[in-house]
From TrEMBL:
Alphabetical GO biological process terms: carbohydrate metabolic process
Residue ranges of every copy of the Spermatogenesis-associated protein 20-like TRX domain listed in the record: 2-154
SUPFAM superfamilies linked to this entry: Six-hairpin glycosidases, Thioredoxin-like
Name of the protein in question: Thioredoxin domain-containing protein
Native species: Glycomyces lechevalierae
Length: 673
C-alpha cells in the first residue's frame, strides 16, 4: 500500500495498491522532489473516468513501469473533482503544450510545480519511452526544461480571458453607484450566434462527441422569455426531445449519461455525473408544461437522483462509473438473446419499441443501447417490459459509485430539486434537498464560514472550496428559502471577501488559498456554468429574495467585467449571458394585497408561459421585516395561471407573517382570489 490508502478521495484510494509510490499533492511531496532533485510526475483523473482506468491497468499496476517512476520521480495523484484548482492550472498547461486536453492528465513538473511537459493518456510502451526521455532531459537539459516551463506558464497566462475595465467603479469610502442597464442588443447577438452553432436535426450543438450543454440551453430559454423568438425555444425543445429519446437517457431507470459519442445521442459514454442530472432535471422541469414527454423525464430523473445518488449521510454522490468489471457499458446494453431471456415472446415487440435492429446492433459485440424513437401505442405493455428489463438488469454486476459529496454539485442538485418540487408539489424532492443542505451546513461549512470542497462518509476533505462551491451552494440555499437565505448570504459574503479581483470579477480560488503556478480565473462554462457565472446568479437570486440592491450591482459588475470574453465566445459563456438576461428582468413585479403585506414575484405568472422559478417573497410591511418564500407550481400548458388551486401551493419554510399574524398560505389565497 502507498500513501493513498489513507486518502478521502475514492479515486485516490483506487490507486492505493499500485506499486507506484503515489503521494497526495502536498508541500511534503514537493519538498521530497526538491530534496531528491527529481521532477514531479503528476497524474490527474477521477474515479469514473474510463481512460483513467485503462492507463491505471496498463501502466500504474505494472511493476516495470512503477520501478521506472519510483526511482526517477516523485509521483503525485490528484482527484480533479476534489482539487479542481490543480486540474484547471495543469489543464491550461496541457492545452498550451498539446492543443488539447482530457483525462487522465499526465504532467511533468519542477519541484515547485512549474510544468515543462504534459499530455493525457499514454499506452504503456509509449509511456515507458516518455519516462526515459524525461529522465534523460532532466539530467542533461535542465536549463532548456526551465525555459520551456517558463514559456508554458507564460502561455497559460496569455491564454486566459481578457477582461474589461468596469466603467462603474466603487469608491473606497462609500457605496458603489447604481449599475447601468444591460444592453439587450448584445444579448440578441449572443443568442443568434449560439443558435448558429446548433444542430438543427439532432438538437444540441456541434458534432460528436455531443454534450448536453445545459448552460447554453438555459440561456436560450431566458432569451426566449425576453424576446418571444420561437426559434430559441424550438431548439431547446428539439434538443430535449432528442436526448430524451436517445441512448444518452437511461430508458429503463431514468437519468442521463455524461455525453454521447455520436451526434444523434444514440451511444453514450456511460458514466453518470451528478451535475449533469441536476442540470437536466432543472431543464426538463422547466419544460414540463410543454410536452408530457418532458414531464415524464423530469419525474424519472428526480426519482433517479433520490433513489440512486443519495448517500447515507443525506447528500448526493458524485458519479456512477462508465465501466462495470472493466468493461464500458456492460450493465446497460442488451443483445437480442438477453432481451429474449428477460422478455420471452415480448422480446421482438420490445426490440422494435427500443429501436433495436437485430441485424444492425448499435453497440459493440452485437449489443444494443436502448432508445425510444416514439412512445409505444400500448403503454401498459411498454411499462411492463421496462419493469422486467430493469429487474433483469439489476441482477447484473453494477458500476461503481463515487460516494464523494462535492459541495458545488450538491448545491446545483438542491436548486434543481427545489425547482422541480415547486412545479410539481413533490414533497420528497424538497425534503431530499433540505437533507442535503443540512449535510453541507453541518459537515462542509466551518465555524468561520469557509466551505470544504468535498466530504466522504460525513468527514470533510482538507481541499478548500473554490468559487463554484460557494456560489452553487448559495444558489441551492436561496432556492430553499426561509432560514437558508441568511446562510446563503453568508456564503456570498465569503465570495466578496476572498474571491473578488476588486474590478468586478472573480478568481476561482480564494486569496488565501495555496499559491499555485497561476491563479485561475475563468468565465468559460463546462458542463455547468462557470463559477463566475454562478456567483453572478447567486447574487441576483439574493437580490430577488432580499431586495438588497448591492447584490444586483455586484452581479452587473461581474457581467460587465467579462463582456469582452462573452462577446467573442457566447456559447461557452452562456452562464454569464443567462445572468445578464436575469439582470434585464431584475425589475420586480409587485402586487399589493394589504397595508402591511407585499407579494413580490420574479415574474407575474400571466406575463409568460415560460417562467424562471415563480419564486415569491412574502414580506411584512412593518418593522419586523419577516419573510417567507413560496414556490408556485407552474400550470400545465394551456391552463390559466389562476386555475392553480391555492391548496397546490408549496411553502418553503413559510411561517406566520404580517400585522395580524395571518399565515403565508392564507395571504396567497387572498392574492389568487
Amino acid at each position: 500500500m502507498n500513501e493513498l490508502a489513507g486518502a478521502l478521495s475514492p479515486y485516490l484510494r483506487q490507486h492505493a495498491a499500485n506499486p507506484v509510490a503515489w503521494r497526495q499533492w502536498s508541500a511534503a511531496a514537493l519538498a521530497e522532489a526538491a530534496e531528491r532533485d527529481v521532477p514531479l510526475l503528476i497524474s490527474i483523473g477521477y474515479s469514473t473516468c474510463h481512460w483513467c482506468h485503462v492507463m491505471a491497468h496498463e501502466s500504474f499496476e505494472d511493476k516495470t513501469v512503477a520501478d521506472a517512476i519510483n526511482s526517477r520521480f516523485v509521483a503525485v495523484k490528484v482527484d480533479r473533482e476534489e482539487r479542481p484548482d490543480l486540474d484547471a492550472v495543469y489543464m491550461q498547461a496541457t492545452m498550451a503544450i498539446t492543443g488539447q486536453g482530457g483525462w487522465p492528465m499526465t504532467v511533468f513538473a519542477f519541484p515547485d510545480g512549474t510544468p515543462f511537459f504534459a499530455g493525457t493518456y499514454f499506452p504503456k510502451s509509449h509511456f515507458l519511452r516518455l519516462l526515459d526521455a524525461v529522465h534523460t532531459a532532466w539530467g542533461t537539459q535542465r536549463e532548456e526544461l526551465a525555459h520551456q516551463g517558463a514559456a508554458i506558464v507564460e502561455a497559460s497566462a496569455r491564454s486566459g480571458p481578457a477582461f474589461a475595465d468596469v466603467t462603474v467603479a466603487c469608491p473606497l469610502d462609500g457605496p458603489c453607484p447604481p449599475a447601468p442597464p444591460v444592453r439587450t442588443e448584445s444579448l440578441d447577438a449572443a443568442a443568434a450566434t449560439t443558435l448558429a452553432s446548433a444542430d438543427r436535426v439532432n438538437g444540441g450543438f456541434g458534432a460528436a462527441p455531443k454534450f448536453p450543454s445545459v448552460p447554453a440551453l438555459r440561456f436560450l430559454c431566458d432569451a426566449y422569455v425576453r424576446t418571444g423568438d420561437a426559434a430559441l425555444l424550438d431548439h431547446v425543445k428539439l434538443t430535449a426531445k432528442r436526448m430524451a429519446r436517445g441512448g444518452i437517457y437511461d430508458q429503463l431507470e431514468g437519468g442521463f449519461a455524461r455525453y454521447s459519442v455520436d451526434e444523434a445521442w444514440t451511444v453514450p459514454h456511460f458514466e453518470k455525473m451528478l451535475y449533469d442530472n441536476a442540470e437536466l432535471l432543472w431543464l426538463y422541469a422547466r419544460l414540463s408544461g410543454e410536452d408530457e414527454l418532458f414531464a415524464r423525464v423530469a419525474d424519472e430523473t428526480a426519482a433517479f437522483l433520490l433513489e440512486r445518488f443519495t448517500t447515507e449521510e443525506g447528500g448526493f454522490a458524485a458519479a456512477f462509473d462508465a465501466d462495470t468489471d472493466g468493461v464500458e457499458g456492460l450493465t446497460y446494453v442488451w443483445t437480442m438473446a438477453e432481451l429474449e431471456s428477460a422478455l420471452g415472446e415480448d422480446a421482438a415487440w420490445a426490440a422494435g419499441v427500443f429501436g433495436i435492429e437485430p441485424a444492425n446492433p448499435n453497440f459493440e459485440h452485437g449489443a444494443n443501447v436502448l432508445e425510444l424513437p416514439r412512445d409505444p401505442e400500448d403503454g401498459a405493455r411498454w411499462a411492463a417490459a421496462r419493469h422486467r428489463l430493469l429487474a433483469a438488469r439489476r441482477r447484473r454486476a453494477q458500476p461503481g459509485r463515487d460516494d464523494k459529496v462535492v459541495a458545488a454539485w450538491n448545491g446545483l442538485t438542491i436548486a434543481a430539486l427545489a425547482e422541480y418540487a415547486s412545479r410539481t408539489g413533490h414533497r420528497d424532492s424538497l425534503l431530499a434537498a433540505e437533507r442535503a443542505a443540512e449535510l453541507l451546513q453541518r459537515v462542509h461549512i466551518a465555524s468561520d464560514g469557509r466551505l470544504a470542497r468535498a466530504s466522504l462518509g460525513g468527514v470533510a476533505s482538507d481541499a478548500p472550496g473554490i468559487l463554484e462551491d460557494y456560489a452553487a451552494v448559495a444558489l441551492g440555499f436561496l432556492r430553499l428559502g426561509g432560514a437558508w437565505t441568511a446562510r446563503a448570504q453568508g456564503l456570498i459574503e465569503q465570495i466578496r471577501e476572498h474571491f473578488t479581483d476588486f474590478e468586478g470579477g472573480f478568481y476561482d480560488t480564494a486569496a488565501d488559498a495555496e499559491a499555485l503556478v497561476t491563479r485561475p480565473a475563468d468565465v468559460h462554462d463546462g458542463p455547468t456554468a462557470s463559477g463566475w457565472a454562478l456567483a453572478a446568479a447567486a447574487m441576483l437570486e439574493a437580490f430577488q429574495v432580499t431586495g438588497d440592491e448591492t447584490y444586483k450591482d455586484d452581479a452587473w459588475r461581474a457581467v460587465a467585467r467579462a463582456e469582452p470574453v462573452m462577446a467573442s465566445n457566447p456559447r461557452f459563456t452562456a452562464g454569464l449571458h443567462a445572468a445578464a438576461e436575469a439582470l434585464v428582468r431584475a425589475q420586480r413585479t409587485e402586487l399589493s394585497t394589504g397595508r402591511n403585506f407585499l407579494l413580490q414575484l420574479d415574474y407575474w405568472m400571466c406575463c409568460s408561459r415560460w417562467q424562471k422559478s415563480h419564486s415569491a417573497l412574502l414580506r411584512d410591511g412593518g418593522d419586523r421585516g419577516d419573510f417567507a418564500n413560496v414556490a408556485i407550481p407552474r400550470p400545465r400548458a394551456g391552463s390559466h395561471p389562476r386555475a392553480v388551486p391555492a391548496g397546490a401551493l408549496l411553502l418553503h419554510g413559510a411561517r406566520a407573517v404580517g400585522s395580524r399574524g395571518l399565515t403565508a398560505r392564507k395571504k396567497l389565497r387572498a392574492a389568487w382570489a
